[in-house]
């Protein structure tokens, strides 16, 4: 069974459709990249998945259960975690405090120990305030926070935004390892070419609809598509 199934999804605000007839899926332990130019509808898609868009229709299922009538907090409780582009950690709290305040975790101490083992840089900076971390460290903390309740799907919205090239590589390598932690990843990313190198499959959005869907390898090898949609990154 697919972790996430989207079929004929339309979404928008008021009378305006931003998404129209979007189809996509995420299989267990896959990394799937959503790419597209600015204004293609990537952010609206993420918000629709998380229950943050007022008008959504079509088919939207998590492990076979429809999400359409469920509020955002119910989707989180089902096993979907979301890392937004901004405001994804508490800057005034320490690394440990950021992990300790996450709700819905049965064995909090054990889960924190597991995540600090998986993110050793966080273990070294456990007493540091999140606001003092580097961009790459801060994103690792955001990932660890999202992983605290042991989700089966992790939705990442532009995780490399505003990072230096060296930190972009570091963050993408961290994402590459996430399926080892028994979580599937849906990655919305402006740096499409780099994101596809760590992905199983990809979808290209244009004007609110999927124009190309294929394996990451074939998307990267299609020179015409790459020129149109992947840019230089």
TrEMBL record:
The species this protein was found in: Tistlia consotensis USBA 355
GO biological process: L-amino acid transport
Transmembrane segments: none
Pfam family, one: ABC_tran
This protein's name: Amino acid/amide ABC transporter ATP-binding protein 2, HAAT family
GO molecular function: ATP binding; ATP hydrolysis activity; branched-chain amino acid transmembrane transporter activity
The keyword Glycoprotein is annotated on this UniProt entry: no
Family per similarity comment: Belongs to the ABC transporter superfamily.
Record has Hydrolase as a keyword: no
Domain of life of the native organism: Bacteria
Keywords for the protein's UniProt record, in alphabetical order: Amino-acid transport, ATP-binding, Nucleotide-binding, Transport
């Amino acid at each position: 069974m697919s972790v996430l199934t989207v079929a004929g999804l339309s979404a928008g605000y008021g009378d305006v459709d931003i998404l129209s007839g979007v189809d996509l899926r995420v299989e267990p332990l896959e990394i799937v990249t959503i790419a597209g130019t600015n204004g293609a509808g990537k952010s609206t898609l993420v918000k629709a998945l998380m229950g943050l868009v007022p008008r959504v229709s079509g088919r939207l299922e998590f492990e076979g259960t429809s999400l359409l009538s469920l509020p955002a907090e119910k989707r989180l409780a089902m096993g979907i975690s979301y890392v937004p582009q901004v405001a994804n950690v508490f800057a005034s709290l320490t690394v440990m405090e950021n992990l300790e305040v996450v709700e819905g975790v049965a064995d909090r101490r054990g889960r924190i120990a597991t995540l600090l083992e998986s993110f050793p840089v966080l273990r070294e900076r456990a007493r540091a305030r999140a606001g003092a971390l580097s961009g790459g460290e801060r994103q690792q903390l955001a990932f660890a926070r999202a992983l605290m309740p042991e989700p089966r799907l992790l939705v990442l919205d532009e995780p490399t935004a505003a990072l230096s090239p060296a930190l972009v590589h570091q963050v993408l390598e961290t994402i590459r390892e996430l399926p080892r932690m028994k979580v599937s990843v849906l990655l919305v990313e402006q740096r499409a070419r780099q994101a596809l190198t760590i992905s199983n499959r990809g979808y290209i959005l244009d004007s609110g609809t999927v124009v190309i869907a294929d394996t990451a390898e074939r998307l990267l090898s299609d020179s015409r598509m790459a020129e149109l949609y992947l840019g230089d990154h």
